[in-house]
Amino acid sequence: MRIFVTILVLIVMLGILISTHEAGHLWTAKRFGVYCFEYSVGFGPTLISSKKWTKPLIRLGKKEEVKPDENGFVHAEKEELVASDTPSKGETAYSLRLIPLGGYVSMYGEEMDETPNGVKVPFSRSLNGISVWKKVIILLAGVTVNLITSLAFVFVYSVAFPTLKSYERFSVSTEQGNISLYAFHAEGRINTLEFNESDTIYSPVPAAIENNGTGFIIDPASKINEEEYVAVFVPISQMGESFLPNLQFYKAAGGFVVTEEREQYGLIAAPDANMRYTPKDDDNISLTLTIIDSSLEESKWFENRRSETVSLTGATLKEESLWIKSYSFYKPFGEAMGDFASNYSYFFEMIGLGLKSLFTFDFSNLGGIVAIGSGISQLSTMMGFERTFFYYGGFIALDLAIFNLLPFPGLDGWQLFVTAFETIRKKPVSQKAKGIMSTIGFVLLIALAAFLVVKDILRLVL
Fold first, then answer.
1. How remote is the C-alpha of 239 from its chain's centroid?
2. What element of type H or E holds 310?
3. 3-state DSSP call for residue 145?
4. Rounded distance, CA 70 to CA 333, Å?
5. Distance between terminal CA atoms of the chain?
6. Shortest CA distance to 115 belongs to which of 94, 134, 92, 136?
7. Whole-number mean pLDDT of the chain?
């Protein structure tokens, strides 16, 4: 079921981003009078295409309504048909094609000077027959729509949804100042140890673990078969999750200094991120939990903590008998906008890594359609599909905007580059050369997409 919903979310998300991008090109092109043959979402064979319109044409100097043929164009025996001088209803075909990895708006003068089936279009309605500044606006319209969509999505994510947290953070005063400590709301039991509604599991500090992850130290001196390990709880979801299956055990890091202050709040060891141990089913585990009663005043939480030791086996760690609860709250608008800015900072950082990988031919930080689907699935586990749709959609929209500005054949950035080149040169590039370069670019982009699909699949299965 999750796979089905993930695919559905992916299709809707890409459909919105691609269709709005191309709609930006179409709307501005029509505003400036450019003749548009087709608005297509996707590439390849046509799945659906509009053919319900009639095409107003000038026939021997007289305007009349004539019906199009199966390809959307009009024939008249021994008479030349000329498109009207201004955009007319029904002159553009709207199509949905098989491969949902992009889209296009086919405009007169973009890559050819002739129209399908010989329909004559005035040069004034060609992409090359309008002012350069109008052409630039048309070419930038798709990217602009993507940016606006990205801003809207991330704004909704940051403001419209409550913040989810599975822990409380509280402060304790020390001689060096206030320190922040953590408490996870727990519900259920471990063996005979029952957790009341107000019971929380204490953690002194987050810690770095394998694969650049972060966990919370629960017991710095847990034992597995009498050998000491640092027990770390690794939250996966913001919406609550089982406690025991998300425990990880690490050897203590060497060189960790136990100060009097650290010892006071229970930090006597830190995990070595490179030395994780996965318990076997028959391993004997001794785990000491520090419990805090959250019904007390927060200032009394730490001093009234209590310790409970439970005996487990490796098999017990698979049980879902104890649940970490989450709670939600709305942040003040100023804090929400701070999160908005932080999200964009992170987005630009990730896109920068992707572009670096692309230009250095190191594809480790690049992902295709499979990676996007995997990312949606993982994020939805943490925050739900609704939040994931706006968060990930905002990221992909920004990524599409920046990627489309690259001066590579087949992308908007290439068209802008050619326009600038022609303006400086004061001479147009031949349509044949443009067509060849666009075809080469399209083939290379499809090849890159196919390569990334294979790479992402191998990464998932291996």
1. 19
2. strand 306-313
3. helix
4. 55
5. 23
6. 92
7. 84
Question: For residue 147, which of 305, 293, 344, 310 has the smallest C-alpha distance?
Answer: 344
Q: Residue 62's pLDDT is what?
A: 41
222 SS3 class: strand
Specify whether the CB–CB gap between 297 and 234 falls below 8 A. Answer: no
Residue type, 156: V
Distance CA 200, CA 9 (A): 35
Rounded Cα–Cα distance for residues 191 and 170 (Å)? 28
Query: Residue 204, exposed/middle/buried by CB under 10 A (0-12, 13-18, 19+)?
Result: buried
In the block, residue with structure tokens 């609550």 = 240
What pLDDT score was predicted for residue 53? Answer: 40
Strand, coil or helix: 430 = coil
Residue type, 15: G
Record the pTM.
0.73
| Integer Cα distance of 36 and 30 in angstroms | 7
Per-residue pLDDT tens digits for 198-256: 899 999 989 989 888 889 999 999 999 999 999 999 988 777 789 999 999 999 998 88
CB neighbour list of residue 143: distance below 8 Å, 6 or more residues apart:
21, 24, 401, 404, 405, 412
Task: State the Cα angle at 366 between 361 and 369, rounded to 5°.
Answer: 130
- Each residue of 1-24: pLDDT tens digit? 677 888 888 888 888 898 899 999
Residue 224's CB is within 10 A of a number of other CB atoms, namely 19
Q: For residue 356, what are its two tokens?
A: 């670096």
Token reading at 234: 């690794």
